Amino acid sequence: MRAQPTHPTVEPPLLEVEHLSTAFRLGQTDALAVNHVSFEIRTGETLALVGESGSGKSVTAFSIMRLVQPPGRIVGGRILFRGRDLLALPEREMRTIRGAGISLIFQEPMSALNPVFTVGSQIAETLQVHGRVRSRRDARQRAIELLAAVSVPQPERRVDEYPHQLSGGLRQRVLIAVAIACRPALLIADEPTTALDATIQAQILELLRELKATFNLALLLITHDLGVVAETADRVAVMYAGRIVEEASVREIFRHPKHPYTQGLLASIPGGHPGSRLRAIDGGVPSLGTIPQGCAFAPRCPYRFEPCPTEVPPPYVVGVEHRARCYLQDPAYAPALSGPGRPGRHSKS
Amino acid sequence: MPLLEVRHLVKHFARSSGLFRASSVVRAVDDVSFTIEEGETFGLVGESGSGKTTTGRCILRLVEPTAGEVVFRGEDVLKFRRGRLRRARRDMQIVFQDPYSSLNPRMRVAAIVEEPLIIHRIGSRANRRARVDELFRLVGLEPSHLNRFPHEFSGGQRQRIGLARALALNPSLVVADEPVSALDVSVQAQVINLLMDLQEKLKLTYLFIAHDLRLVRHICDRVAVMYLGRIIELATASDLFAAPQHPYTRALLSAIPIPDPEVRRQRMLLDPATVNRDRPLREVAPGHWAAI
Questions:
Q1: Are B61 and B77 in contact (CB under 8 A)?
Q2: Cβ of residue B196 closer than 8 Å to a chain A Cβ
Q3: Dihedral sign computed on CA atoms, order B59, B60, B63, B67
Q4: Cα separations in angstroms, B5 against A25, A163, B2, B45, B76
Q5: How far is Cα A33 from Cα A242, in angstroms, rounded to an integer?
Q6: B247-254 vs A198-215: helix axis angle to the nearest 10?
Q7: Contact assignment for B261 to A254 by CB distance below 8 Å
C-alpha cells in the first residue's frame, strides 16, 4: 500500500517498506506475523501504526531494526532507509544505522534500562559506540544536555542517578534521551506511553511533539490507543492480523474510515450517552497460526459477503492517499451491495 | 440504608528497614470514606499508587485494613470472624484485572467456575453442574467449552470466565478492579456491555476501579478521585466531568486524549507541591465534594 505522491517531491521518502514479510516457525509451518506490509515515512512526518495484540505492529518495528529473534525471521521484502536496503546490509553496517539513523524506544521503561549503571553512563555509552564524543568529560556534558533536552529537571544531579531512583515518566524521558543521543532521522516508538499514568502520558506525547519539531524527526508511532493517534499522527496505517488494512491521513481515518475494522475500532471508544451500549466488534483477534483465509477480518465483519472468506482483498484506492483492503470498496461489487445495512453507518461524517 | 459504607478506612504498609534505609510507613489508604447505594456503579479512579486497588481489597478483606469500618448491609465486615466473614464473602465478589494470571492454568474452566460453590457447600453435584452451565450462558460463553483449560480461551473470554466465577454465589456487590484494561480495544467494549447487561439482569452493585476516565464516565453513576491515598473529589459522574473542582482532577481530565484529530485540549499541569493532602473534603455543590 504505497502512497502515490500527489505533489511530486524532490526528496525520496526517508523510509520505504516494501512487501515486508516476517514469519515465525509454528510446528511444521511458517506463520506470517507480518504479511506483505508496505508503507513509507517522509522526513519529519509521524506515521501511526495502529493495531491490537497480535496485529504484527511490534514485529514490523523489530523487522525495520533487524532485531527479530528466532524463531522469527524476515522472509521477504525490502526496507529502504535513505534509499539503501537495510535487509542487504552486513550486520556491522546495520549497527551504525541503529541509534544514529533509526532509534527504537520501548513500552517498558524499567526493563529497557540497565539497573546497575547510572543514567549518564547509559547515554554516554550510545554516544561512545557511535564515536560522537572525544572524552568522558565530553560524554558527561552531552548527557546532561540531552537530559535537559527531554526536560528532565535538575539534569546535573539526575545524570549520576540510577534507573530505580527515577519515576516511570522520568525513565521514559531518559530512554528518549538515549534514543535521540546520536540524532537519528527516524524514531520508532513502540507503545511509548502505555505503561504510564494519564497525566505522564500527556507529558511524554508533548515531549515527542517538541522533539519532532526541534530535530525534524520522523516518528513511527506504534499504538493501540486511538486518542494518542489523533493527537500525534499525520498519517495512520491500521494493521490487522499481519496486514495493513487501511491507510490514510489522520483526518481521513477519523472522519471517513472505510474498512469495517477501522470503523469498529472507532465505534468501540467509550463515548456518547453514558450507560448506552458500546458498539463492540464481535469475536476476538485471531492468533498467529489461526489467521483465517481471505480477508482475516471477515469472520468478525458485519458486512462480509461472498468474496471475503476466499480471497485477500487488494488495497483499493478510496480517496487522496487513502487505501482500504475491503471488497466493499470494489466498484465491481457495488450493484450487488445496495440495500439496508450498508457500510458507512459507523462513520462520523 | 446504603449497601456499603466505608468509614475512615486506613491501610498502612510497613516498609522494613533495609541496608541504607530506616523502616518507614507507606500510607496507601489514608482516611477514606464513601458510601455505595444498592444498584449503583461507583467508580474509584486514580493513577498508580493512589490507593484505589488497596481500597477495593480492604473492603473484601483480601488485605487487612489498619483502621476504619467497612459496613456492608448494616454490619461492620472488619469485626467479622472467620466463619462469618466467609458467609459475607458470598455476597461480595471481585473480578481481577489480569485474565491471564487470575485463573488457575491447571484447572478446567468448569472446575474454576464451580469451585466457589464447592467451598461454600452449595447444592448437590448435579445442581452445581447445572448452575455452572447456567453461569456460562449468562456471561455469553459456549457451555460445550466447559471442559477446556484457560489457555484455550482469548483474553476477553477469560475475563468472562472470571466473571462467571464471581457471580456463582449470587453476590450483590462486585468489586471490578480494572476489569478490561488488559484487553484489546475491540474486546473491551464487549465486556463493558456484558457488565452493564448483568447489572440490569441481576441487580448488581459495582465498585468499579479504573484509570480509564472515558470508560468511568460511560458506566459510573458516581465517582471518587483518589490521590496519594486520599479521596480528593467525589461527585456524580456528570458533575465531575462537567465541573471538576480539585486541581488534580482538572489535570487528570485534561490529560485524556481526545479521539478527534481536529480538537486540541488545553492541558492543565499539576504541581504536586501545591496539593495539601490534609485538606478535608467539603461539599461545594449538592452531592459534589472536593478537598479544596
A1: yes
A2: yes
A3: positive
A4: 55, 41, 7, 18, 9
A5: 5
A6: 50
A7: yes
Q: Measuring CA to CA, which residue among B29, B28, B55, B27 is closest to residue B42?
A: B55
Q: Which of B171, B152, B178 is nearest to B57 (CA)?
A: B178
Cβ separation of A268 and B254 shorter than 8 Å?
Answer: no
3-state SS, chain B, equals CCCEEEEEEEEEEEECCECCECCEEEEEEEEEEEEECCCCEEEEECCCCCCHHHHHHHHCCCCCCCEEEEEECCEEHHHCCHHHHHHHHHCEEEECCCCCCCCCCCCCHHHHHHHHHHHCCCCCHHHHHHHHHHHHHHCCCCHHHCCCCHHHCCHHHHHHHHHHHHHCCCCCEEEEECCCCCCCHHHHHHHHHHHHHHHHHHCCEEEEEECCHHHHHHHCCEEEEEECCEEEEEEEHHHHHHCCCCHHHHHHHHCCCCCCCCCCCCCCCCCHHHCCCCCCCEEEECCEEECC
Residues pairing with B43 in the sheet: B208, B223
Average pLDDT, chain B: 92
Assigned CATH topology for domain B4-91+169-290: Rossmann fold (3.40.50)
Closest chain A residue by Cα to residue B182: A53
| Cβ burial B193-205 (10 Å sphere, 16+ → b, else e) | bbbbebbeeeebb
Chain B contact for A284, CB < 8 A?
Answer: yes
B207: left (phi over 0), alpha (psi -120 to 50) or beta: beta
Indicate if the pLDDT at residue A344 is higher than 60: no
DSSP state for residue A340 in the 8-state scheme: S
Chain A residues with CB-CB distance to B218 below 8 A: 270-272, 274-276, 278
- Chain B interface includes A164 (CB < 8 A): no
Residue A109 clears pLDDT 80, i.e. is over it:
no
Angle in degrees, CA B99, B105, B110, rounded to 5: 85
Q: Is B125 exposed, middle or buried (0-12, 13-18, 19+ CB in 10 A)?
A: exposed
Q: What is the least distance, in Å, from the CA of B127 to any CA of chain A?
A: 31
What ipTM was estimated for this complex? 0.84
pTM of the model: 0.87
Beta-carbon contacts of B73 under 8 Å, excluding residues fewer than 6 positions away, are B1, B3, B91
**CA–CA min distance A338, chain B (Å):** 27
> Cβ separation of B217 and A270 shorter than 8 Å?
yes
Cβ–Cβ under 8 Å, residues B177 and B96: yes
CB A147 within 8 A of CB A191: no
**Cβ separation A198–B47 shorter than 8 A:** yes
Structural element, H or E, at residue A24: strand A15-26
Tell me the C-alpha to C-alpha distance, in Å, between residue B79 and each of A24, B18, B65, B72, B172. 56, 34, 11, 11, 20
Task: Say which residue, A112 or A108, is predicted with more confidence.
Answer: A112
| Tens digit of each residue's pLDDT (9 = 90 or more) over A208-228 | 998 899 999 999 999 988 999
Q: How confident is the model at residue A4 (pLDDT cuts 50, 70, 90)?
A: low
Asked if the C-beta of B88 comes within 8 angstroms of chain A's C-beta atoms, the answer is: no
Q: Which helix (H) or strand (E) holds A76?
A: strand A72-81
